């Protein structure tokens, strides 16, 4: 009896680890406060030199057209402290392709930038304003005083991927902004971080003036804080633009002491999109790639100047950029109409790529020989719903 129980233990341990993505999904107030008292929090640090920066910070605001964002006085003030990216485009509407506000979990075999960073020993964290505790994976948490929307799972990119949420230590690195201030004071900020303001602060439930004021209020003191500015590059951007019938162009602002002094106050009008956020980090630290649209994306120009990457112009012969709206998605894993729900396979060979980075070995191992459809190329010109990838069939 006893030995039988003992021999089961390792199996149970494996089983429990596999369920980490479901450990902290309960949203009842009592469950949340109980977990808040016990959930693990991790503040990993590291010091891996990059070619253009040693720390990367992304702040995502919500649903605002380029002109509205650039016209906001506080965002405009921030833009003048750094580089304005005027050719920055979102990928689709709504912000999660085939987004349906459901509780989505992306299969464990889909890797993320977190895998690429950890592979090179680069520390990372997310800081989500008003997330009730590190690793909370529930759908939402409202303001306990007034019941307003506050933290939402759909604005927490890492938790949606089971490859990230399925490991307790990774959950422990998905933290709230209280932890940001604590990590800052303790000089324990990681090298890569993603920051999401709450549903009011990010303009989702408010307006661009509120979000602009929040962002300046948050960043202005940090711009002069030696514990934050350690060859740091900050990107302030938006998930998507608001008006669906016009092109999905959004504002991007690069800030921080990693921005070369002579570029402060300038504009970079190259074509970038959200995959550029990944490609730039890959180029900076010589990371592997995901084998998806990160492979072809442009690296931000001033970084590319130091990494040897070539920043390309959108090729209007492929399809005119002005005719690309990026305003809806072709069906994918979250499609509710039944078809095309397979996860596409990454491109493991990367034919035609303009750099020497290769696909992460663990991704190659997982996906080699997969019969899943492959839509990825090393081209800058990514598809959208009106221009689906070659090989895509509407129903399968
Ligand atoms: C933030 O997360 C920490 C760590 O889980 C938790 O102790 C703290 O109560 C949270 N802060 C707020 C304001 O919810
Ligand atoms: C969002 O955060 C701000 C502070 O950044 C706070 O004043 C506000 O109450 C929060 N909103 C909600 C709905 O909790
Ligand atoms: C934290 O650091 C440890 C030790 O360097 C490393 O093994 C682990 O992958 C890191 N975890 C995260 C979530 O960064
Ligand atoms: C995308 O924009 C084009 C051009 O304005 C428009 O014809 C189309 O209806 C839009 N699609 C959606 C889903 O809004
Ligand atoms: C890729 O590697 C080759 C061979 O080492 C080298 O000649 C070339 O410059 C590299 N290309 C880039 C973009 O780094
Ligand atoms: C990835 O996971 C999905 C969902 O579980 C599965 O359908 C697919 O076959 C897996 N692909 C590979 C290559 O393992």
From TrEMBL:
The keyword Transferase does not apply. The keyword Zinc does not apply. InterPro entries: Alkaline_phosphatase_core_sf, Phosphoesterase. Residues 1-20 form the signal peptide. Pfam families: Phosphoesterase (PF04185). Transmembrane segments: none annotated. Keywords: Hydrolase, Signal. This is Acid phosphatase. It comes from Apiospora phragmitis.
């Amino acid at each position: 009896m006893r030995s039988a129980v003992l021999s089961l233990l390792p199996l149970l341990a494996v089983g429990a680890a596999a369920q980490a993505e479901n450990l902290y999904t309960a949203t009842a107030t009592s469950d949340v406060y109980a977990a808040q008292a016990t959930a693990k929090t991790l503040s990993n640090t590291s010091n891996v030199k990059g070619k253009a920066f040693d720390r990367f910070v992304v702040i995502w605001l919500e649903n605002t057209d380029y002109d509205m964002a650039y016209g906001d006085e506080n965002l405009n003030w921030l833009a003048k402290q750094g580089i304005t990216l005027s050719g920055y485009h979102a990928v689709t509407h709504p912000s999660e392709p085939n987004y349906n506000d459901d509780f989505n979990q992306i299969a464990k075999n889909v890797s993320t930038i977190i895998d690429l960073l950890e592979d090179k020993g680069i520390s990372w964290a997310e800081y989500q304003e008003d997330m009730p505790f590190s690793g909370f994976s529930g759908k939402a948490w409202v303001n306990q005083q007034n019941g307003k929307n506050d933290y939402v799972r759909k604005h927490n990119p890492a938790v949606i991927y089971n490859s990230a949420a399925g490991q307790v230590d990774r959950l422990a690195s998905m933290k709230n902004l209280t932890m940001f201030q604590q990590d800052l004071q303790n000089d324990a900020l990681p090298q890569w971080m993603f920051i999401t303001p709450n549903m009011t602060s990010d303009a989702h439930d408010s307006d661009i003036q509120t979000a602009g004021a929040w962002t300046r209020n948050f960043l202005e003191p940090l711009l002069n804080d030696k514990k934050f500015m350690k060859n740091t590059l900050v990107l302030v951007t938006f998930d998507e633009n608001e008006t669906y019938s016009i092109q999905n162009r959004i504002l991007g602002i690069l800030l921080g002491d990693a921005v070369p002094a002579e570029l402060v106050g300038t504009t970079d009008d190259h074509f970038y999109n959200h995959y550029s956020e990944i490609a730039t980090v890959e180029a900076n630290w010589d990371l592997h790639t995901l084998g998806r649209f990160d492979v072809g994306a442009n690296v931000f120009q001033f970084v590319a100047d130091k990494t040897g990457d070539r920043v390309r112009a959108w090729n209007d012969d492929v399809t005119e950029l002005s005719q690309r709206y990026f305003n809806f998605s072709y069906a994918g894993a979250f499609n509710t109409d039944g078809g095309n729900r397979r996860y596409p396979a990454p491109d493991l060979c990367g034919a035609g790529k303009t750099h020497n980075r290769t696909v992460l070995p663990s991704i190659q191992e997982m996906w080699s020989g997969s019969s899943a459809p492959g839509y990825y190329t090393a081209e800058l010109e990514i598809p959208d719903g009106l221009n689906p990838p070659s090989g895509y069939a509407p129903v399968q």
